[in-house]
Amino acid sequence: MPWPQAVKGRIKTGGDREIVHSYPYRSACPSTVWAELVAGAGEELFFAGYTNYFFWTQVPTFSETIRRKAEAGCRVRFLLGDPEGEVTRQREIVEDVALSVSARIRMTLGELARLGAVDGVEVRYSAPEDAANHVSLSVFRFDGDALVTPHLARLAGHDSPLLHLRRQGPGGMWSRFAEHAEELWERARPV
Q: Please, how many CA atoms are within 13 Å of residue 140, restricted to the half-sphere of its CB?
């Protein structure tokens, strides 16, 4: 018996099976989603946003959580834009907001400095030749989940859309975004 069209239209097949949820704005993603993904990760947390500063405002006790995760053997990485870089300066002109890109990066660096040296926590700046690719796409990985923000034209990250992806196998959207972030990480330089 063939499936009714109403059911067929609701069943995910192919690449869209990895899309858990989509949000028209990153800021529309509930803070509980961010907190649950951070708390649930046990192997890897990879924060490959250009500034990453909002984690300290979105996720309660974020510093303590990433410290505990790292001490328990979870790999924790932060890939940041260079606050002194040319792409950062250009992005500040484009966004034209009071809380500048370099200020947001410095906020993250300050929070990481307060965390102190913790084995398992790594911080790098994206390479100058990769900065334009980094500033236009944020990838946040939590083991097999990812939150991805493709940045739109003149909008700050919180005003750009967000996809919640869950890895279903090799070659899907999750893998493509994860590989992009890994490529940026490999060429990045330590802070």
A: 23
Q: Which of 9, 63, 55 is nearest to 157 (CA)?
A: 55
Kindly report, residue by residue over 17-37, the tens digit of the pLDDT: 899 999 999 999 999 999 999
Contact criterion met (CB below 8 Å) for 161 and 150: yes
pLDDT tens figures, 70-85:
999 999 999 999 999 9
Which residues, in sequence order, are bridge partners of residue 122?
A: 77
Q: Which residues contact 62 (CB under 8 A, 6 or more apart)?
A: 38, 55, 56, 111
β-sheet bridge partners, residue 138: 149
3-state helix, strand, coil in the chain (%, to 5): 45, 20, 35
Say if CB 93 and CB 138 are below 8 A apart.
no
Sheet holding 19-23, edge to edge: 19-23, 162-166, 145-150, 137-142, 44-48, 75-80, 121-125, 189-190
Q: Give the global pTM.
A: 0.90
